[in-house]
Write a structure and sequence with these properties.
40% helix, binds adenosine-3',5'-cyclic-monophosphate, alpha+beta, single chain, Alpha-Beta Plaits, four-stranded antiparallel beta sheet
Length: 138
């Protein structure tokens, strides 16, 4: 058993019908889906999730965007899950994302960057616990 990371396929990628293609890339890269569901976050819940960015100038834009349509949330398991997943998804800004990364292929802008990945083991646990109970993990 490896450790975990948390991911969200963001509203514009879900809306564009890219859920299946992105999940295929994730599974083919060796990640096991421990938990997954489709949810539509309220502004309040999106605000809580991204509370760490509260003081950033893009916070209100981020909350509007992330509560603007349904998303896929999931817990993924693999050795070195956090860093391997960040390598797979690529840089936050798709203009800087390496060829072959998920953001290079599917992101449309810095704000609408298709997918989220936890930035540390500690945050992976916090983010996974935010969305999933233990009974929803397999
Ligand atoms: P994510 O990795 O999910 O974490 C924070 C999100 O804020 C990020 O992806 C982007 O969607 C968004 N974001 C980060 N920087 C900016 C920015 N400068 N302008 C707008 N949105 C941003």
């Amino acid at each position: 058993m490896g450790n975990i990371t948390f991911t969200m396929i963001k509203p514009e990628a879900v809306e564009a019908g890219n859920t299946g293609a992105i999940l295929k890339r994730i599974e083919e890269s060796g990640f096991r889906i421990v938990a997954m569901k489709k949810v539509h976050l309220s502004e309040e819940k999106a605000g809580k999730f991204y509370e760490v960015h509260k003081e950033r100038p893009f916070y209100s834009e981020l909350i509007e965007y992330m509560s603007g349509g349904p998303i896929i949330v999931a817990i993924l398991e693999k050795e070195n899950a956090v860093s391997d997943f960040r390598t797979l998804i690529g840089a936050t800004n798709p203009e800087d994302a390496a060829n072959g990364t998920i953001r290079k292929e599917f992101a449309t802008s810095l704000a609408m960057n298709a997918i989220h990945g936890s930035d540390s083991d500690e945050n992976a646990k916090i983010e996974a616990d935010f969305h999933f109970s233990n009974q929803e993990r397999f």
